[in-house]
Amino acid sequence: MRIVIANGTVIDPANNLDAARDLLIEDGVVHAVELPGRFRGLEATQIDARGLIIAPGLIDMHVHLREPGYEYKETVLTGTQSAVAGGFTAVACMANTNPINDNGAVTRYILERARAANLARVFPIGALSKGLKGEELAEIGEMLEAGAIAISDDGRPVMDANLMRRALEYCSMFNVPISVHEEDLQLAAGGVMNEGPTAVRLGLRGIPNAAEDVMVARDITLARLTGGRVHVAHLSTNGAVALVRQAKAEGLPVTAEATPHHFSLTEEAVDGYNTNAKMAPPLRLAEDVAAVQEGLRDGTIDAIATDHAPHHRDEKEVEFDQAANGIVGLETALPLTLKLVESGILSLAEAVRKLTVNPARILGLPYGTLSLGAPADVVMFDPTGTWKVNPVKLRSKSKNTPFDQWEMKGKIVLTMVEGRVVYESRG
Amino acid sequence: MFTQRHFLGIAGLTQEELLFLLDTAESFREISEREVKKVPTLRGKTIINLFYESSTRTRTSFEIAAKRLSADAINITASASSVTKGETLLDTARNLVAMRPAAIVIRHPSSGAPHFLARLVDCPVINAGDGTHEHPTQALLDLLTIRERKGSIAGLTVAIVGDVLHSRVARSNMLALTTLGAQVRLIGPRTLLPAEFRSWGVELHTDLRQGLAGADVVMALRLQRERQARNFFPSTEEYSRRFGISLAALAEAKPDVLIMHPGPMNRGVEIDSTVADGPYSVILDQVTNGVAVRMAILYLLTTQTQEVVEVEPTVRDEAAA
Fold first, then answer.
1. Does residue A344 sit at the B interface (CB-CB below 8 Å)?
2. CB atoms B112 and A319 under 8 Å
């Protein structure tokens, strides 16, 4: 089966391509990328991409799909429906399910669910510690054999430095990264938002930047000690960005991601006790947002990941300190990233790079590119198409977004996995 | 004029609104001095006191305020309610609202709980203390007490001493006092004194005597003993030695300094008995004024469909009768 996507602009950062090109897909694989018109007359399904960007399918290296165990928040099916609607063709899902993904059986179960959903590719991330308790190593080898592609206790920091050291040493045998949720729990001291003027005003307990910074510093030190790969998840502070920058300058195996909410919102979003602005790490100050943006610009931060964290309404419609942490992010990630393009912080190609080939390389995946022979995971989007966020209309089963009613620019038109259309917007 | 549907905090209130609230409270003060301490103003209206934290003073004060206005006051405490059966705050509130109260008075350990309810239930909500956020009726009664003694608030130097970090009383008072033109000084150990408060236009002091120098009013805050366990200070003894209000510590304050405390007091910890019971103490006046303030708030929030300027004189008429 042949598909031609014609008349669009192809952005493929892995091949430094950002030009008017037509794409020929054959049997689910990128067969040719040529100057416009080259495939005219070819017997193929024609897709007109006039005015659109054609890019590798987006890759989100940090989501929570909630299955098994929390299917009332999200399932692998609804989560991947949300993913493809946001232009993502691959997602890596964290281990804090119930049961926790700390052994091969759970890993295999998630992959089965993904096969049944048959939308985006799903790559489980295995737990670092049994039961995410931060005490004993989980069945790391078994999970990797079953299909896990990275290790993380995400949602919980690994407070035991020696456990982290061992995990880094152990994972280095498999050359997989450990994604680290950096928050010193003693310093966080039960805080529910950023420690700063807003917390003082609202009478809410604050989490200082230092809670993140000391852990990032610790794990960079352990990367130096062990040679293990540290991937800093959802970086949120000025200090953490500086530490990662320094680690990279030293040549350490350290990578980092930032979420759209951490580069788009400040702690002031919490005003009015908005539980949809409650997350871990918390939204920080404008200077931190600027530092995260600068980290994205100068390459300190490799990837943009959503930390898509669906929660039921009942878990957010409560007192602020009782509310669950996190927001859904898959369907708002691209337009929020395009705001950085509009404000000149990233070129469109750089933005696409951080949503495609960079996370793919960190995770060791052969996706995120339109190289010849690569699987035809493709997204087509209209960079100027506008829409307004209406939580009810999100595909995710959960509607917890702080971007309610935001005007977004950047509209997904079509998402394709291995040459198969998995999402197409109407009108 | 005061036209808000809810009374959630001092934050956002203008000088005019604050003065109006104080004037209204003042007009209610006299009712409590009568032999028959009751007016028919809120007859047929129900006030629900929903208390998720223990309270003697505030709950009783709201109850008495409601009863002196002839409203029916219902008290619900968390330990004796469906909360112990796992009902959420929102469901509890919605059920109570379905019984058509004129207002819900809420005290809750979570900051923002009244604001959360105000957004989601169709009934005036009055904040009787939310977590470490605000305690707006306490601030009003403090202002009323100060104004009663000093004539006005503007230009006074008010020292707030103690655990400012965790104090909703301190926050509401800081907002109210600065809005009315007082100089506010916060005094306490560095661990309980967030630097962010500087941007509120107040001074921060870690030396008690320096902070008290020239003060017109001293507000002592209650020290919660469990703070010691979280290492905010080494011991209550050391705290008391450095930050307890004693006669000696007051030497540098104005000779006619007022001593206030929101209660309940830890005698010998944040305040010495000689000070608490001394001639400068207005601690019990605060309690008396609390009833008047709460009458005013209940009245303003539950009679909003009526023209405030029309109704107010009837209260005075009854007083004259």
1. no
2. yes
